[in-house]
Amino acid sequence: MTSPVPVLEVINESSLGGGQSQLLALATGLPADRFAVEVAAGPGGPLVGRLEAAGIPFHPLPFADSIPWRLLRQIRCLVARHGHGIVHSHGGVAGFWVRIACLGLPVRTIHTLHGIHYLHFEDRVKGFAYRTVDRLLRSAADRIVCVSEADGRKGLEAGVVLPGQLRVVVNGIDPFVLDDGPDRRATRSTLGWSESDPIVGCIARFHRQKDLGTLIKALSHLVARGHRVRVALAGSGPEEQSLRSLTDRLDLRGDVLFLGPRTDIGPLYRAFDLFCLPSLWEGLPLALLEALSQGLPIVASDIDGVNEIVTHEVHGLLVTPGDPRQVADSIERLLRDPELARRLGQAGQSRVRSEFTSRKMVEKTMAVYEELISS
Questions:
Q1: pLDDT tier, 56 (very low <50, low <70, confident <90, very high otherwise)
Q2: Domains of the chain from N-terminus onward
Q3: What's the CA gap between 23 and 31, in Å, rounded?
Q4: What does pTM read for this prediction?
């Protein structure tokens, strides 16, 4: 009987964002008789508690340290000391340091691009610099994983992935985890929402990428048309103050509800009537998968990553990015046609619960691991 293959999963922050969610699914979902998984990340976040509860060994790494050689030495010593056969980095920061640290070590390396965000930077010089670094480091990984077919194509076009090393493993969720918790009525009562108030929700980081200002502007169109509807935004981020200022300028205070960061996302999804994701770009958005898994009708930008999940008029309504009037028209259409909203929600739920599960993501990633081991 062969011993389990030591695997080290690495990410720079121990928060619970998209990359961390996929890492956690891998750490807890890979079969223990085949892989001995450990995790390394920056300390102090909620990911650490989740790993400890699951019995997954955790190693803190000083990604915030201002002395880079110290981080490189710790990664290299960790990999060598524990005899890891596979080292899997997640996201740009971890991918940069891990690929450099593992040069010359007898390990197989995988790097996952959880969205190629620098291709969308407004600062073209900064975007060029990031792209150049990834091009230089591409050969330092045996495999590079992209989370959507579109990102795979973009990675090849940008030259940050080589054809032979590219593997596409789409994100997945465990929808049944979201099924737990209070029902719609209880959550709405806690939040002070009446049962009759139409609530358009979004759970996202308040960042330019998510373009939440377009959703707020769409609400102003709906209010002007006489609709009694509110927008609930759960999250935080660098754009929060500008979003609050926009809300005040459009005289929507009381109609836009800033809920702050939330952990009760399952009950929150069930408290919404619609879900809107007006992003400018995405890898393959977990929040959209989560909302669809709860049967919510969707209005989302027609962009790469999103349109791999949602087919227009089948699983939801897709709109031109940055167009608040189109967003308002689509929301209005769903509010006026409950049967359409129900049909789209059911179709989206069925698709996500069959095609975009964390179990499938783990199985496809495991196939990449096995491929490396056998080669």
A1: very high
A2: 5-172+357-374 (3.40.50.2000), 175-355 (3.40.50.2000)
A3: 14
A4: 0.93
